[in-house]
Amino acid sequence: MELLDGNQCAAWGARLARVQYVPCYPITPQTEIIETIAQWKADGEFKGLFEQVDSEHSVLSAALGSAATGARTFTASSSQGLLLAHEIFPNISGTRLPMVYVNVSRAVSAPISLWCDHSDVLSVRDFGWIMLVCETNQEVLDSVIMSYKISEDKKIVLPVLVNMDGFVHSFTREQVVIPKQKMVDKFIPKQDLKIKLDVRNPKSMAVPVLHGYMYFRSQVHRAMLDSVSVIKKVHSDWYKLTGRKYDFFEGYKLSGAKEVIVMMGSYTTIAKNAVDQLRKKGRKVGLLRIRVLRPFNEILFKKMLKGVKHVGVVDQSIAPGLSGILFSEVRGMLPSVKVSNYIGGLGGKDVSDKEFIEIFDDLKKGKEVRKWLM
Amino acid sequence: MIEIRIHGRGGQGIKKSAQILARAAFLKGNLTQDFALYGAERRGAPVVSFVRLDKKKIGTRGYIHEPDYIIVLDESIDDKVVMDGKKKSTKVVVNGTAYCNVNASEIAMKHLGRNVPNIALLGAFCKVSKLFSLKDLEKAVSIELGKKGKEIVKKNMLAAKECYEKVRC
Fold it and tell me: Which class would CATH give A249-372?
């Protein structure tokens, strides 16, 4: 066991995966990830190529190029940095390249906030990236390693985004087990790309297709759906190696639950505490944490919420003019369940255990509501 | 669960204090969280850091609103901020003259030649809280300041010991 913050965990994940190329550009609260790798590079402990380029747009462009040559590629950013790189996100998934990108969630400007919400990461929701959203620092480290296994799988070949929460994960140290290098080497041997850029065998990738475009988009969607079975296998293999269990969703005290909160990210720790307090009083409440946001395993999601009367979706995001983003995603999947929406924690605002208990009380009343936890 | 909040100014070692206390708690078999709020902070600006420790899983995150202990490295920081959420049972350890206090700056100057009073004041905190012995503190300081060398650990521990002995409640 070690004491590591979320940023160090992301860096450790990349190091243990023996990534070959890290293009980077600093931004709070992510900077420490690349600082850590830069320090290792200076100390001779990191063998890959480390390069600071001129912007986040260039970072992801460089990452695309490197991934296209078959080099194992890693980078990280936050908020405005992720937004600046937007254009490149669907280019990487559309070109069908494997890589791992860590986003350290931070609210988007303006006004400027340095603290966490999920408006940044959810803006790339539809760009064809597999997306994992973490609750603990250990999960960040484990997820980066597992992501290479998923990303490079021959059936998938799609990029993966691992999300952690700014400050709450990135700057908070917790107890973390650093996996053994030997074990990781065995778990994720470097996969060679079938189609890649190679100076000895020149070719063009991601060329204009005009009428064929729809076929390629459908292929990204299909690969995403196919990745469900791959992710399941990777989770179960990792569990066998480490004893640490991950799934598409984490069900917390869902057995017999009538009122359930659905949410993602670090604040689930606080919501679980509220569940514990109410369960002690005999209340039938539970929590479902979304970990794998894309692909969204709809079948499993519905199965886990079977018998639930009222779901409260707690969104750390807002689609202005509609609702919270998770709410609009899952409401349609639950036609016979009442679904309420709570917007909270924007720009890192606290949501206390008392507030989660109030949400459960609200859900028990049975009336669908949409509220802001101001 | 025990929650500790540390107030001071950028440059006084506020973040490091939280890391040292968390390390001491970790070494004694606790689960811990330690973090600092920063971003716009800089040398001289008010900085706050936090430690949580518990034998069982910690069921919360973020800002500590009702700390069990408040450690104040600089008395000139706004009282409203520092004492926010203070409970009747909250113990306060101050580098200065109020509550449980000791002049940690002076003692740090004496031993280190610099006004970096964080570890010195942690000595007083050990005495007041009874959470850690000076030996526990020394182990934690050795790990967290490891890269800076043994000499700096030794000097800081002399300051911590003096604060441990001199703190008044």
Answer: alpha beta
Domain spans in chain A, listed from the N-terminal domain onward: 2-242, 249-372
- Terminal CA-to-CA distance of chain A, rounded, Å? 38
Chain B residues lying within 8 Å of A353, measured CB to CB? 59-60
Q: Which of A172, A348, A352 minimises the CB distance to B33?
A: A172
Write out chain A residues lying below 8 Å of B84, CB-based.
Answer: none
Euclidean distance between CA atoms A301 and A285, whole angstroms: 17
Note whether A355 contacts B: Cβ–Cβ < 8 A. no
Q: Does A167 touch chain B (CB under 8 A)?
A: yes
What's the burial of B6, exposed, middle or buried (CB within 10 Å: 0-12/13-18/19+)? buried
- Contact criterion met (CB below 8 Å) for A185 and A224: no
Class in CATH terms, B2-166: alpha beta
Q: What residues 91-120 of chain B have any CB closer than 8 A to a CB of chain A?
A: none
Q: How far is A174 from chain B (nearest CA, A)?
A: 5
pLDDT in tens, chain B (169 residues): 999 999 999 999 999 999 999 999 999 999 999 999 876 667 888 999 999 999 999 999 999 999 999 999 999 999 999 999 999 999 999 999 999 999 999 999 999 999 999 999 999 999 999 999 999 999 999 999 988 999 999 999 999 999 999 999 9
Domain assignments of chain B as residue spans, ordered by start? 2-166
The alpha carbon of residue A133 is apart from the nearest alpha carbon of chain B, in Å, by 17
Contacting residues of B for A171, CB less than 8 Å apart: 35-36, 38
Structural contact between residues A83 and A108, judged by C-beta atoms closer than 8 angstroms: yes
Q: Which CATH superfamily is domain A2-242 in?
A: Thiamin diphosphate (ThDP)-binding fold, Pyr/PP domains (3.40.50.970)
Q: Which residues of chain B make contact with A1, given a CB cutoff of 8 A? A: 26
As for the ipTM of the complex, it is 0.94
User: Which residue in the block uniquely carries the two structure tokens 């936890």?
Assistant: A373
pLDDT at B39: 62
Question: Which tens digit of pLDDT belongs to each residue from A142-171?
Answer: 999 999 999 999 999 999 999 999 999 999
What's the Cα-to-Cα distance from A360 to each of A252, A290, B58, rounded to whole Å? 14, 18, 21
